[in-house]
Amino acid sequence: MKSWIRKIKKDEKAVSPVIGVILMVAITVILAGVIASFVFGFGQKMGTAAPNAQLVLSDAVDELTSTGNENIFYMDHNGGDALPCKDLRILVYYKQTGSLYKQFDYDESNDYFYSSDGITGSGMGSNDLFEPGERITFTEDGDTNWGAGTYTVKVLHIPSGNFIFTGDVTVR
Questions:
Q1: pLDDT greater than 70 at residue 146
Q2: Cα–chain-centroid distance for residue 155?
Q3: Strand bridging mode 129-130 / 71-80
Q4: CB within 8 A of 138, min separation 6: which ones?
């Protein structure tokens, strides 16, 4: 009977050294990955948060004609964060096709949004902020005539790369 007991004790083995080394290497690699993520800032560079604003579009009271210099539509800021105008790009798309119609960037020296063909958006005041209670009036110049129809307007917050507003306006 003693030989049988000795045989059991003799055959019992712990984790082999090879398995132990593999486990230690795996744990080391996992810890190195976690430490590297903190050192290199992964997870912390989530980008700039986009502001929140309640914007409303409406058609201007002018009926569009071929004479130009008419108000096209309004964008009202009804609440939320004050929006630095230099951080915004306003994109207008044809609703029917989804293709880009106009792009408005901000001109800090003149305090208005402009497109390449002379259509402007103004009325924010001179502090370069679009704040609650203010209205941007988009106006065509004498050489550019805006067509009647339905447009999708998107406001891009440039630092975050997010659209903070998307809405439709029907221009008559």
A1: yes
A2: 9
A3: unpaired
A4: 60, 71, 72, 73, 74, 75, 104, 113, 119, 120, 121
Tell the residue number behind the tokens 């009202």, with chain if given. 76
End-to-end CA distance of the chain: 104
Domain range summary for the chain, segments of one domain joined by +: 2-39, 53-171
Strand partners, 55: 77
Which residue stretches of the chain are H helix?
2-11, 17-39
Return all residues near 60 (Cβ < 8 A) that are at least 6 apart.
70, 71, 72, 73, 74, 137, 138, 171
Rg (CA), the chain: 31
Mean pLDDT of the chain: 84
- The per-residue pLDDT for range 42-60, each reduced to its tens digit, is 655 566 788 999 999 999 8
For residue 53, is it left (φ>0), alpha (ψ between -120 and 50) or beta? beta
Structural class in CATH, domain 53-171: mainly beta
Measure the CA–CA gap between 15 and 20, rounded to whole angstroms: 7
- Residue 12 — very low, low, confident or very high, per pLDDT cuts 50/70/90? low
Exposed, middle or buried, 153 (CB in 10 Å: 0-12/13-18/19+)? buried
Q: Worst-scoring range by mean pLDDT, 6-20, 33-47, 74-88, 95-109?
A: 6-20
